[in-house]
Amino acid sequence: MISTCGITTLARRDVVALPRYAPDITPCVVDVSDNVNLWGAPPAALRALTTTAMSASRYPSVYAAPLRDAVLRYLGLSDGQGIDVVSACGSDDVLDATMRAFGEPGDEIVFAAPTFAMIPTFARLNGLVPVAVPMTPDYEVDPQQLVDRRAKITYLCSPNNPTSTALSRATVEYVVHHAAGLVVIDEAYAEFAPESFVDLVTKVERLVVIRTFSKAFGLAGLRVGYGVGSTDVVEPIIRARGPYKVNALAEAAAIAALGEGGDGIGWVTAHAALAVENRARLAAALRRLGFEPAPAAGNFLFVPVARAQVIAQAMCRGGVLVRALSGLPQDIPALAATGGNALRIGVGPWDAMERVLDAFVEALACA
Ligand code: PMP
C-alpha cells in the first residue's frame, strides 16, 4: 500500500479546507431541488446527440467557435460590435475561469448575500477573498454598498439563486458604471425573467454576462455555459478556460437547442413561458397556505419556512425532493422570522406542482 502519511500537507491549504459540493440527492419521485427544466430537453438537441455520437473519437472544436456564433445570433449581437463569447463546461466553469483570469491572489470579489453558493468556493479556489454584503430588507441589493467596496470583481446574480429575485435596471446600471473592477452578471435564469441586462455588454467594457444551457435549455447533464462581453474582457477568460472545454456532443446539442423551429428554440421559449405561468400559480397556492414566497423571476420559488430541513425531510418521505436552506442571513425580516430557514422549490409541469403542494401540506401537518 502506498503511504499517504502527510501527503495532504502538500496540497494547497485553500483546497483542502473546501468541502465537496454535497446537495441532498435522495432519490424521490418528484425532484424539484435543482432548478433544471422539469419538462426535459428540446427534441432537436436530443436528435443532435445521436447524429454527433460518431464524432466521439475526435477532439471537439478548440474554443467552440460554432457555438459562439450561434450564441451571438441568439442574443442579437455580432462580433462587429467588439463582442465575444466564451463557452465552457457549465456556467460554473465560466465563473471559475473569470475569477482566474481577473483575480490576483488576495483580490476581493464582492456580492450581496444570499447568492449562488459556489461563488465563495470558486473565489477561494482561485485565491480570491469573498466579501458578502447584506441584501436590503425587501430582497434588493444596495448598489452603493457593492461599489464602495472597490473590489476587483463585483458579482451580481439576476434572477438570484436562491431568492429567485431580479435586480432592477437602475441597480445594475449603477454598479456597472461605478464599480472599480470587473462586473459579472450571472443570468443563469434569464429566460424566465422579465428583463435581461445582456444589452449592456455593447455599452460597458468592464462587464461579462454569464448564462447557461442547464436551466431553460434543459441540458444540465451536458454541462454547457457561456459568457458574453467585450473582446478585451472575454479574451483573458478564454485563455484561463483552456482548450476543448465543451465536448463535441454538448456543443452540437446546444447549437441545435438554439436552432429555429418548434423543437429547438421554439420548444425552449414555450416551456419557459409555461414555467412562468406555473410559478405564479404555485406562488398563489403557497400564499393561500399562509406563506410568502419572495417575488420570483427564475424557474423556482424561494419560500421562507421555519424548520425547513425538517419539512424537507418529511416532504422527501412523501416522494418530493426540495432544497432546504438554513443559516441564511437574517437582514431580511421574512428570513429573520423563520430563523434563516427557507425552501427552494423548482417550478415545472402542474401535475408535479400538485404533488409538491400535497407533500408540503402533509409535511406541515406531521413534521
Ligand atoms: N449560476 C447560478 C445562479 C446557478 O444557480 C447555477 C446552477 N445552479 C449556475 C450558475 C451553474 O450552472 P451550470 O454550471 O449548470 O451552468
Descriptive account of the structure:
The protein has 367 residues and is of the alpha/beta class. The protein folds into two domains: 21-40 and 264-366, Aspartate Aminotransferase, domain 1, CATH 3.90.1150; 43-257, Aspartate Aminotransferase, domain 2 (3-Layer(aba) Sandwich), CATH 3.40.640.10. It is 38% helix and 16% strand. It has 13 helices and twelve strands. It has helices at residues 13-16, 43-52, 65-75, 90-102, 118-125, 143-148, 169-178, 231-241, 248-257, 265-288, 308-317, 333-336, 350-366, and strands at 30-31, 83-88, 108-113, 129-134, 153-157, 182-186, 207-212, 225-230, 300-304, 320-321, 323-325, 342-346. A seven-stranded mixed beta sheet has the order 2-8-7-6-5-3-4, with helices on both faces. A three-stranded antiparallel beta sheet has the order 9-12-11, with helices on one face. It has a two-stranded parallel ribbon with strand order 1-10. α5 (118-125) links the parallel β3 (108-113) and β4. It is globular, with a radius of gyration of 21 Å. The N and C termini lie far apart (48 Å).
Helix and strand run: HEHHEHEHEHEHEEEHHHEHEEHEH
Quantity of strands, as a count = 12
For the record, the CATH architecture of the largest domain stands as: 3-Layer(aba) Sandwich
Shape: globular
- In the CATH hierarchy, the third-tier topology of the largest domain is known as Aspartate Aminotransferase, domain 2
CATH class bucket of the largest domain = Alpha Beta
Global Rg: 21 Å
